[in-house]
Specification:
The protein contains eleven helices and 14 strands. It is α/β, with parallel strands linked by helices. It folds into two domains: about 5-215 and about 335-420, Zn peptidases (Aminopeptidase, 3-Layer(aba) Sandwich); about 215-330, Alpha-Beta Plaits (2-Layer Sandwich), CATH 3.30.70.
Length: about 425
């Protein structure tokens, strides 16, 4: 039985090994179905075998390590799924996603080493395409596992014109059998994921771990504001139809509405902006900007969007510009199951950690897995709340505590299954 520090040290060593596999020299970039992803998947499979799991890889490249029930008959053939992703953004940190995979492997190893009997099977999953960087897709591999993959995603192309279908073949996958990757709904007990917070809340409150209540819903829009170009020196201010000035006022409205939704952890971001004609001495004729808005529940997010659209149209009318607001991405809020929250909360309490529940503002594989089964998530404190950055960092002690919390949560779910005579 490893101590918390030993678990954390082992996790850190495994994460360092994974970080060596990159598509770029001098920084960590591991895109879905790339050579670096192939090497990382091979290493993860090797680790799973070392801890006694039966290892396979599905048609979308998800590595699966399977541990059989040790109390047959108590929960039928149900399986508890634990996982995260091993692909990264460009110039990434080493903890986002990978910690969840490593935590699952270490938990499976410790459960066997401690002789903990489980009435259900345990599957550890290492997904790809969570980040959605290489292809204009996201969550392809977890969606396939959940049985909700969109088949047309196979025809998506990367920046080099390579289709996802062809990349899968090169990776060793089987695009013609993607439906076989799905679990049957009655085969699965739940899905658990350990992940760095990617935010500053836990650090600010001096807490090492927190229990996730929901994965925020997201809406993304492309907004085009069209005015009229004119000479910067000759058109009076009162007679201008300045697309950029109108857009700036709209962005202030976005900030105000998002601040008003603080109770629902609402955030809104304008991440991309294009101005035409883009000359120093010409009044902007057209502006295209993006809006990403998120909240911990769907109703306040949708209400905020409706309010923003109304404000945008009022601004456009007052400034004599036109407006087109097009939604290009929508993901509903994913609630974390109360029973899984309680398993994590109870496990943390057993380890002397105060209860803290919070929503996730970032997207996760749980968005897809919720189509299959209940989802539970445990956050781990990360320094400065920094993620998607080489400075991303979690301490050995916090990671060790997270793995131990995962183990104890699994034990609680096992006890519940036994006491109820079957899976809950």
């Amino acid at each position: 039985m490893r101590t918390l520090t030993e678990l954390g040290n082992r996790a850190e060593a495994m994460l360092a090994e994974l970080a060596a596999f990159s598509d770029d020299d001098g920084k960590l970039t591991r895109l879905y179905l790339s050579p670096a992803h192939r090497a990382a998947a091979n290493l993860v499979g090797a680790w799973m075998r070392e801890v006694g799991l039966d290892v396979g890889e599905d048609s979308l490249g998800t590595v699966r390590g399977r541990q059989k029930p040790t109390m047959p008959g108590k929960a039928g053939n149900r399986r508890l799924l634990i996982g995260s992703h091993i692909d990264t953004v460009v110039d990434a940190g080493r903890y986002d996603g990978m910690l969840g995979v490593v935590a699952g492997i270490l938990a499976a190893e410790e459960i066997q080493a401690r002789g903990i009997e489980l009435p259900f099977g345990l599957d550890v999953l290492a997904f790809g395409d969570e980040e959605g960087v290489r292809f204009p897709t996201t969550l392809v591999s977890s969606s396939a596992v959940a049985g909700c993959m969109i088949s047309s995603d196979l025809d998506a192309c990367d920046s080099n014109g390579v289709t996802l279908r062809d990349a899968l073949v090169a990776f060793g996958g089987y695009p013609e059998t993607t439906t076989a990757a799905a679990y049957a709904r009655d085969e699965v007990l739940a899905y658990l994921e350990v992940h760095i917070e990617q935010g500053p809340v836990l650090e600010a409150e001096g807490l090492p771990i927190g229990v996730v209540t929901s994965i925020a819903g997201q809406s993304r829009f492309s907004i085009t504001v069209t005015g009229e170009a004119g000479h910067a020196g000759t058109v009076p201010m009162a007679l201008r139809h300045d697309a950029l000035a109108a857009s700036a006022e709209m962005m202030l409205a976005i900030e105000a509405v998002a601040r008003g939704g603080r109770a629902h952890q609402m955030v809104a971001t304008v991440g991309r902006l294009r101005v035409r004609p883009g000359a120093v001495n010409v009044i902007p004729a057209e502006v295209v900007f993006t809006l990403d808005i998120r909240a911990d529940a769907d109703a306040p997010r949708l209400s905020a969007i409706a309010e923003l659209e109304q404000r945008f149209r009022q601004i456009a009318a007052a400034r004599g510009v036109s407006l087109v607001m097009e939604k290009f991405y929508e993901s509903p809020t994913t609630p974390c199951a109360p029973r899984l929250q309680e398993a994590f909360v109870g496990a943390a309490r057993d380890l002397g950690v105060a209860e803290r529940r919070l929503a996730s503002g970032a997207g996760h594989d749980g968005h897809a897995m919720h189509h299959l089964t209940d989802v539970g998530m445990l956050f781990v404190r990360c320094r400065g709340g920094i993620s998607h950055n080489p400075a991303e960092f979690a301490t050995v002690d916090d990671m060790g505590l997270a793995v131990e919390t995962l183990i104890k949560a699994i034990e609680r779910l096992a006890a519940d299954a036994v006491s109820s005579g079957g899976p809950t």
